[in-house]
Write a structure and sequence with these properties.
Blueprint (H helix, E strand, L loop, with lengths): L2 H12 L2 H30 L10 E7 L4 E2 L3 H10 L3 E16 L2 E10 L3 H5 L5 E2 L14 E4 L1 H8 L9 E3 L4 E7 L12 E4 L18 E7 L5 H18 L1 H4 L3 E6 H6 L4 H32 L1 H9 L4 H34 L7 H9 L10 H26 L4 H6 L8 H36 L10 E7 L11 H13 L4 E7 L10 E3 L1 E2 L11 E7 L3 H5 L3 E4 L12 E6 H7 L9 E5 L11 E10 L14 E5 L8 E7 L7 H11 L4 E7 H44 L1 H9 L4 H33 L12 H27 L3 H6 L2
Parallel strand pairs: 4-9, 6-8, 16-21, 18-20
Antiparallel strand pairs: 1-2, 1-10, 1-11, 3-4, 3-10, 5-8, 6-9, 7-8, 12-22, 12-23, 13-22, 14-16, 15-19, 17-20, 18-21, 19-20
Helix pairs in contact: 1-11, 2-9, 2-11, 2-13, 9-13, 9-15, 9-20, 11-13, 12-20, 15-20, 15-22, 15-23, 16-19, 20-22, 20-23, 22-23
C-alpha cells in the first residue's frame, strides 16, 4: 500500500463523512470495551504474581471429608519440623488495632507472621526491607512492614515513610518496609509485624483452637506438588495417631497461590465479561463490514469507470483496504482513549458508586489493573486485524465490478444480489451473537431479581449500623469492654428517634465470621467432622433492633447479661441439623470462647438452649445461612462490636449524631461501617448488579447493532429492487404481498440466526452456572423471553423498509429504466 493509496483513501472518506463517522464510532466503542475488560483480565488472571517463583508458592490448609480449616499453631510447628518437600512454611495470625493519626483513630488490620514468613512469600519490598532475624526475636524493637494499599491510603504513597512510627495506643512500631502492589497475603492484611513482637495468646499453644489467619508453603526447587501431597498424607496420619481428638481425619492440602489470590469465583465473571465484549467486537466488525459492503455497492459505477480507465484489481483493493486501515487506526485511537477512561472508572475508589462497589467486591488485585504495554500492543494489533477483516470483504466485492453492465446503466446503482446475500449472512451472524448476549443478560437479570427476593432473616428498613473497635486500653486483660458496650448502647438509645439499640459481634451481610467447636449432648461427630458453628454474641435489644423472628422459646433478658454462662439461643438451621422434628429447648451445649486476642480465647463453656431464632444471611443474600449459636455478649466479650440502631426517623439523619455520641464516650474509638442497613444490603448486591448491568449494556448494544444492520440490509434491498417491485405492483401485487416479500427476506435471516443464537446461548448459559442464583442455565422461559424481544425488534426493523417498499409508485420505478 503506497502513500498515493492512503491519500486517495483520505479523499474518499472525506466525501462520505456519515459512513466514516459510523464506522469509527462502531469500531472505537467495540475496541474500547474489549480492551478495558482485557486489561482487567490480564492484570488479575494472566499477569505473573509479584513473588519469587510464584509457581512454587501454595496456601496450606487442613482438610477432612467435612470441612477445611487453618492448622493450629502447634500443628504448624509439627509440619515445619517434619516436612522435607518445602523450602519453608509461614504462619499468619490476624488481629485488629486502632492506629492513632492526626485525624483521629483509624482501624488497622495487623498480620502477625512467623519467622521467615517473607522468605517463604518471596516478596521484594519497593521501599526499605522486610524482617531480619533480629527483628523476629523475642524482646526485639517492634517493627512493621506495610502493604502497598495501606501505604497509599494512609501515607499517600510517601516515600519517606521508612522510619515513621505507628502508634496503636498499646504500643508503637517503626516502619521498615513497603510491599509492592498485590504482593500482600492474606489480602486483608494492612500491616505485618513479627509474631514474637506481641504477647503470646494462650490459645496459640492449644491444638484444638484454630485462629483467624493463614499458612503458606513454598516447595523446594525440583519437588512437584504430588510429591508434597504424599508427604502431607503421611504427616497427617502421624498427627492423627499422636493427637486423635484434634487431628483424626484431617490432612494437609495445598492450593496454588494464584487460585487463592484470585479467588475461585472471580475468574468466571471476568471471563464472561471478556467473552461478552469479544462478541460485541465481532458484531462491530460485522456491522462495519456491512456498512462497507453497502457503500461499495453504491460505488460500483465508480469502480467500473476506474477499471475502464486502466485501474487493475490490485489497485482497487489497495484503495478500499486503505480506507479500512485508516478507519482502523482512527478507531484504535478512539478505542484506547475509551479504554483508558473505563479502566480508571473500573478502579475508582468511591465505594458509594455502583460501578466501583461492584468491581471492588468482585475483582481481586484491583489496584494492579492498568492499561500497560502488553495490553496496548495487543489492542493495537487487534484493531488492525479488526479493521482489515471488516474491510476485506467489501474490498474484494468492490474490486470486481460488472464493467459492461455498469457503464450501460444511466444511474449509479449496481446489482446488489450477491452483496445482498452476503449481508443477509452478516445479519444472521449478528442475530446469533445478539441473541446469545440477550439470553445471558436475561439469565443474570432473572438471577438478580431472585436474590433480591430471598428471605434475609432480618428487616433492614429503618436501621443504621456502626462497627466499633475500642481503644487499646480495652485490650488489656481484665478490662471491662462489655461495660463500655453497655454504656455506648445506653448513650445511643437516648438519642431522639431511636427505638432500639442492638449489639452483635458479626453483622449480617458484613462477611465476618467466627466459628466455635460445638459439643451437643447425644450427638457424636463422625471422624474428620467438626461440629463447627458460627458464634454470635448479642444483647437483649438485638432481636428487636433487627427484627429477627423468634421461632421458639425465648430470647435473652437483662438478667441473662450477668450470668457467666447459661442461656444459649440457636438458629433454625442448627436446630434442624441436630434436632430434626424434635424440641431442642433444654438441651445442653458446650463450646469454646472465640474472641481472638483475649486471654480467655479457647476457654470451654457450657450452656442450655432456651430459644430458637430464624436464620440470617451472614455472607450474602445469595449464600445459605450458617448454623449458629447466640449467647449474651457479657459471656464472651468481643474485641469489637456492631451497633444496630432502629429509628423511627430517617436513619441517614442520625449518622452524624450517632458518631458524635460514640466519640463523646471515648475519643479513641475506631468507627467504621457507619451506614444504613439498606446501604449495606445494596453493597452486598453490588457485584452481582454490576455484572448484570454490564452484560445488559453489552446485550443492548448488540441488539442495537443487529437492528441497525437488519434495517440497513432491507433498506438497500428495497432500493436495489425498485424495478422488480414496480413490475410486481404493475401486474397486480398489492401492498400486503410486497410487505410479505420484504419480511420474508429479513426474517429469514433473523430466524436462521436465532437458531444458531439459541445454541450459542446454551453454551454461554453453562458458563454462567456458577454465578446464577435460583435459575438454571437452561431456563426455558428466560430463553423464550429473550427470543421474543429479539423477534419483536427485528419485526420493527423489517416493517419500516417493508412499508416503504409497499408505497413504491410503479410508474416512477419503471420510468427510471
Amino acid at each position: 500500500m503506497t502513500v498515493t493509496d492512503l491519500l486517495g483513501a483520505i479523499r474518499s472518506l472525506r466525501r462520505a463523512p456519515g459512513y466514516a463517522a459510523a464506522s469509527l464510532l462502531t469500531l472505537g466503542l467495540g475496541l474500547g470495551a474489549v480492551t478495558a475488560i482485557f486489561s482487567v483480565v490480564h492484570s488479575v488472571l494472566l499477569a505473573p504474581l509479584p513473588y519469587r517463583a510464584p509457581e512454587r508458592l501454595y496456601v496450606f490448609t487442613e482438610q477432612s471429608t467435612q470441612t477445611s480449616r487453618l492448622p493450629a499453631f502447634p500443628a504448624f510447628l509439627d509440619y515445619q519440623r517434619g516436612s522435607r518437600s518445602f523450602e519453608g512454611l509461614g504462619y499468619i495470625v490476624g488481629e485488629s488495632a486502632g492506629l492513632r493519626t492526626r485525624d483521629g483513630v483509624v482501624q488497622m488490620v495487623n498480620a502477625r507472621v512467623s519467622p521467615g514468613f517473607f522468605q517463604v512469600l518471596g516478596a521484594t519490598p519497593i521501599l526499605g526491607r522486610t524482617f531480619a532475624t533480629d527483628d523476629e526475636a523475642a524482646g526485639a524493637s517492634p517493627v512493621a512492614v506495610l502493604s502497598h494499599a495501606f501505604w497509599r491510603g494512609q501515607f499517600a504513597g510517601d516515600p519517606a515513610v521508612i522510619g515513621k512510627t505507628l502508634d496503636t495506643g498499646a504500643g508503637s512500631f517503626t516502619v521498615i518496609g513497603v510491599l509492592p502492589a498485590g504482593a500482600g497475603y492474606p489480602t486483608w492484611a494492612q500491616v505485618y509485624t513479627p509474631l514474637a513482637a506481641g504477647p503470646a495468646a494462650p490459645a496459640m499453644s492449644r491444638r484444638d483452637v484454630h485462629v483467624d489467619g493463614g499458612m503458606l508453603a513454598r516447595l523446594r526447587a525440583g519437588v512437584d506438588s504430588a510429591t508434597a501431597a504424599r508427604e502431607l498424607e503421611q504427616l497427617g496420619t502421624r498427627l492423627a495417631e499422636a493427637y486423635p481428638a484434634e487431628n483424626a481425619g484431617f490432612h494437609g492440602v495445598l492450593t496454588p497461590m494464584r487460585d487463592a489470590v484470585t479467588g475461585g469465583g472471580s475468574s468466571t465473571p471476568l471471563l464472561l465479561l471478556l467473552a461478552a465484549t469479544a462478541l460485541l467486537l465481532v458484531m462491530a466488525c460485522v456491522n462495519v463490514a456491512s456498512l462497507g459492503l453497502a457503500r461499495v455497492t453504491n460505488r460500483t459505477r465508480e469502480m467500473a469507470l476506474r477499471t475502464a480507465l486502466g485501474a487493475g484489481r490490485g489497485r482497487l483493493v489497495r484503495q478500499l483496504l486503505g480506507e479500512s486501515v485508516l478507519l482502523a487506526l482512527a478507531g484504535a485511537g478512539l478505542g484506547l482513549l475509551l479504554a483508558s477512561w473505563l479502566v480508571r472508572l473500573l478502579t475508582a475508589s468511591d465505594a458509594g458508586n455502583l460501578l466501583a462497589a461492584g468491581v471492588a467486591g468482585a475483582i481481586p488485585r484491583l489496584e494492579e489493573v492498568r492499561l500497560d504495554a502488553p495490553v496496548f500492543l495487543t489492542a493495537f494489533a487487534l484493531t488492525l486485524l479488526a479493521g482489515i477483516a471488516a474491510g476485506l470483504l467489501p474490498a474484494l466485492a468492490g474490486s470486481r465490478p460488472d464493467l459492461a453492465g455498469m457503464l450501460r446503466r444511466a444511474d449509479s446503482k449496481g446489482s446488489a444480489a450477491g452483496a445482498g446475500r452476503t449481508r443477509r449472512v452478516m445479519i444472521a451472524t449478528q442475530t446469533a451473537l445478539a441473541l446469545a448476549l440477550l439470553v445471558s443478560a436475561a439469565l443474570l437479570a432473572n438471577s438478580f431479581w431472585r436474590v433480591t427476593r430471598v428471605d434475609r432473616g432480618f428487616q433492614s428498613e429503618g436501621v443504621l449500623t456502626v462497627h466499633i473497635a475500642p481503644g487499646a486500653r480495652y485490650a488489656a486483660p481484665g478490662s471491662n469492654v462489655a461495660g463500655l458496650y453497655t454504656r455506648l448502647a445506653e448513650r445511643v438509645g437516648a438519642l431522639p428517634g431511636v427505638t432500639a439499640v442492638g449489639l452483635i459481634n458479626h453483622l449480617p451481610l458484613a462477611g465476618s465470621w467466627n466459628g466455635t467447636r460445638l459439643g451437643i449432648d447425644g450427638a457424636k461427630p463422625a471422624e474428620g467432622e467438626e461440629l463447627t458453628v458460627g458464634l454470635r454474641v448479642a444483647n437483649p435489644a438485638y432481636l428487636e433492633a433487627m427484627r429477627v423472628p423468634l421461632l421458639k422459646g425465648r430470647w435473652f433478658t437483662a438478667a441473662d447479661m450477668g450470668a457467666a454462662a447459661g442461656p444459649i439461643v440457636i438458629n433454625r438451621r442448627l436446630a434442624e441439623r441436630y434436632w430434626p422434628g424434635k424440641d431442642p429447648i433444654g438441651h445442653r451445649i458446650s463450646f469454646y470462647k472465640a474472641a481472638a486476642g483475649r486471654a480467655d480465647f479457647g476457654e470451654p463453656v457450657e450452656g442450655t438452649v432456651v430459644g430458637v431464632v430464624g436464620d440470617v444471611r451472614q455472607f450474602g443474600l445469595d449464600r445459605p445461612s450458617d448454623a449458629a449459636i447466640y449467647l449474651p455478649y457479657t459471656v464472651n466479650p468481643w474485641g469489637h462490636i456492631f451497633l444496630t440502631v432502629r429509628a423511627s426517623v430517617a436513619p441517614g439523619s442520625l449518622l452524624e449524631p450517632l458518631r458524635r455520641t460514640l466519640l463523646a464516650e471515648d475519643p479513641d474509638l475506631v468507627l467504621t461501617t457507619l451506614t444504613t442497613m439498606d446501604d449495606l444490603v445494596s453493597g452486598s448486591l453490588a457485584p452481582r448488579e454490576f455484572l448484570t448491568l454490564l452484560v445488559g449494556i453489552f446485550a443492548a448494544a448488540a441488539l442495537g447493532l443487529a437492528t441497525i444492520g437488519l434495517y440497513g440490509v432491507l433498506s438497500r434491498l428495497v432500493r436495489s429492487r425498485e424495478r422488480e417491485i414496480g413490475i410486481r405492483r404493475a401486474v397486480g401485487a398489492d401492498e400486503v404481498v410486497i410487505m410479505r416479500l420484504v419480511f420474508r427476506e429479513g426474517m429469514g435471516a433473523v430466524l436462521a440466526g436465532s437458531a444458531a443464537g439459541m445454541l450459542l446461548a446454551a453454551i454461554l448459559g453453562r458458563a454462567l452456572a456458577s454465578v446464577l442464583f435460583g435459575v438454571t442455565p437452561g431456563d426455558l422461559p428466560t430463553y423464550l423471553a429473550a427470543l421474543a424481544l429479539l423477534l419483536a425488534v427485528a419485526l420493527l426493523a423489517c416493517y419500516l423498509p417493508a412499508r416503504r417498499a409497499a408505497r413504491i409508485d410503479p410508474t416512477v420505478a419503471l420510468s427510471s429504466e
